[in-house]
Amino acid sequence: MSDEWLQLINEIKNCKKCPLSKYRRNPVPGEGPRDADIMIIGEAPGAKEDEEGRPFVGAAGKLLTTLLESIGLKRDNVYITNVVKCRPPNNRDPTEEEINTCLPYLMKQIAIIKPKIIIALGRHAARTIFKQAGLVWKNMSTMHGKVYEGTINGHKVIIIPTYHPAAALYKPNLKAILEKDFTVVIASVLRDKEKKRQRSLLDFLK
Fold this sequence. Notes:
Elements: H1 3-13, H2 20-23, E1 38-42, H3 47-52, H4 59-70, E2 79-82, H5 96-113, E3 117-121, H6 123-132, H7 140-143, E4 148-152, E5 155-162, H8 165-170, H9 173-205
Parallel strand pairs: 1-2, 1-3, 3-5
Antiparallel strand pairs: 4-5
């Protein structure tokens, strides 16, 4: 593990830049391979995540695991994190100030991991990522499950916004929408592989 990465994780674990540090039990930097092609970004940790210091380990996390498995992926294949690394009290939405204060950590993670695809779960995550990519965010109902291309810190990335799995726990009809949106992810992966294959073939024919 690189010194740069260890330093980043240590900074997150010891961060006291916003009031959320007063309420947390454990900060939640994220987990997964640092060379992951797919990065999943949620909004903020919940109670179970705060307890364990790991992302998406509660009921919403179980649904996320199921969604990944439905497209042939395992949690170990992706890097999972949140925009805000500490749990807001009573699972409330993170404030703009909290998002902006914590954002440099996420941007550094993206810079190190260099994912090809970012799945933004929930409107706060989607809005934040779109802004950093120089894209215009409207709303989840019209933009979920679609493929957008942007550049974050000079790194080109595909962004796919969808609903947060926690929302499907309260609105079961969203589960089918999430399942459909996740098929867009695997389609994007396959398209990327095909582009690489074609490039390799063209290089061979030159």
